[in-house]
## 1
Amino acid sequence: MTDDAPFPTNGLNDTVHQRHRLGILTIASESDRVEVSYLREALELTAGNLSRHLAVLADADLVAIERGYHGNRAKTWIRITPAGEAALDAEVAALRELLDRHG
Amino acid sequence: MTDDAPFPTNGLNDTVHQRHRLGILTIASESDRVEVSYLREALELTAGNLSRHLAVLADADLVAIERGYHGNRAKTWIRITPAGEAALDAEVAALRELLDRHG
DNA sequence: ACAGAAAGGTTTGCACCGCAAACCGATCTG
DNA sequence: CAGATCGGTTTGCGGTGCAAACCTTTCTGT
């Protein structure tokens, strides 16, 4: 009861912790850049919803958005930023700490 | 790219995933019953904020609220319900799956 | 060549949520 | 018995998450 170390959930950043954004960052951290359309399918999101989450992440400078073309089709990719990597690492560390409490 | 298994974050339940509620449920799962005032300190929450989260969890039948006295002082405890345990286990399982992707 | 349909996103509108300030009823304390 | 304290709830509001509606460009059929 004299445990005054901060509880793991206090280390979580709300911007990163949101479940879809956690998914976006996780996938983004696994490869150099990711097609938005791939994210949409992998995370089973509506395009609108995904768009807003990407805007939130871009505003927070956790991902960078790159527009371009695939053939003649407009296409968008995202790339995780160094700040995004750091924030994700912090989240993962806090979650590991939390999970340690669950045996 | 033909990975059509649902992404781990899709298995997360928003009621449970919220960071403070995740903390509440985690602590509640670790002992039989917990004083609300202990939660307040451990999670560094304002009383008002905590009260609302507990109401959400109680509404969802994930915790039960027990009112009583400690000496003459009114005091409240919470106890995780079987549904709460199950929901927390599901969250933890999904998080483990997610963390597995992070090496 | 022109009318849809489709691809690939963005914006809008609204309900719900998270938060702390304000509040409430009891119980101690001088 | 006036004020401080404990233990918690309610209120008010800005912010968030969501899908429907919308926009632009590119295919496709005729």
## 2
Amino acid sequence: MLDGSDDMEDPVAGTKAADGKDQAGGSRGRRADAQRNVSAILEAAQELLSTDPTASMQEVARAAGVGRVTLYSHFGSRTELLDAVFTRVMAEADRALADVDLTGDEPQALARLVRSSWRIVQQSRLLLFAAQLELPQGQIREHHDRALERVESLIRRGRRNRTFRTDLPTSWLVTVFYSVIHGAADEINAGRLTVERAPNLITATLLSAFAPPVPAT
Amino acid sequence: MLDGSDDMEDPVAGTKAADGKDQAGGSRGRRADAQRNVSAILEAAQELLSTDPTASMQEVARAAGVGRVTLYSHFGSRTELLDAVFTRVMAEADRALADVDLTGDEPQALARLVRSSWRIVQQSRLLLFAAQLELPQGQIREHHDRALERVESLIRRGRRNRTFRTDLPTSWLVTVFYSVIHGAADEINAGRLTVERAPNLITATLLSAFAPPVPAT
DNA sequence: CGTAAGCCGTACAGCAGTGTACGACTTATG
DNA sequence: CATAAGTCGTACACTGCTGTACGGCTTACG
């Protein structure tokens, strides 16, 4: 939103902050240490905000081993930083899920998907909380939807093959997937569920919930 | 909890704020208008915080038609107010759920329970968010657990009668109950689910998830 | 090896919220 | 109807956070 006008009035472009926020990629004009700092900030912010969602810019800067002013030179506002961190996490998640084999038997594919997903959700639980505090909900949902696409396509396939139920809408089943995983994450955080037992419980529950209802009774 | 020391150093007791916070009951020394104000504050705070979880004391006071100072004279801090509101909501919920007939066929009882529960959850979604911002998590859980007792006892009964599955722990099934309802509430808020369809989806999902797994592959 | 890009700390301005103090006014209640 | 309980607005002190400005120093990079 605020980069748009900057690009217009700065014909040289890329002087300060255009597109090279992420560590990788070809930001030619940026000095190496600047790029390193941006990475350090993003990483530190991700970890810190996942612990304390209300951490201030001051604290983020300290955690990244960087001055607060430098932090502001890279991210114009708290919201901007939060958005960048959120984007980064979702990209990470997307990369992790891309490796999951979703072919073959749907229940087993679902189990694999759960096994790869739930940890990410658990770790970025509080970060989502932080995002909800100051990011427009539309933006959050947008990021989320992209990650849930894989879930949705798997469910669709299961429905076509009659492995999964078709009496409830696909979008609802996606919601159930998401909700149960989040519920498990909360339980773990509360110390009422161990990390080891979680994936099996989640998978067993989802498979029952997704199975076609038996016509009996 | 935080009134404890006040009672000690004020032998007269009941002068300002001891136990008569709620509208009903026998707070002899309190003037009638004071009691009315406390009620108005609690009601307004509940409604306002359910819309904007970050509403300030100023805004709460205005919504209650009361001066900010008066608000502070009844609730010493924001946290104290929030706790009172939270307690009130849970008490309301408890009262509503007490009317639900939990006897007889477990699936039907579960359906009735869902039908009475989910609206309350949906309406106080954001209030829970507010509570998580400044109430110790232990306190929140304590309130929650009391409300979930009914769910738990119903599930236990279903397990004894082999209507519900016993291969997953009871506490986990309670979590699933809670999570699915919350998920539905979020979907409604996002405009992706209508109020009319919600209860059926929730019930159908939970019944499948709670049903004993069929030994047939 | 010079220069510009980038870093740093400090300092300042602004804002918003929390709690508290005070004095005057209003109203239940006996 | 007198009095104590309660309310009201205004004002103040304090805290913590955001975002910006400035000048000096370090360092990457050609």
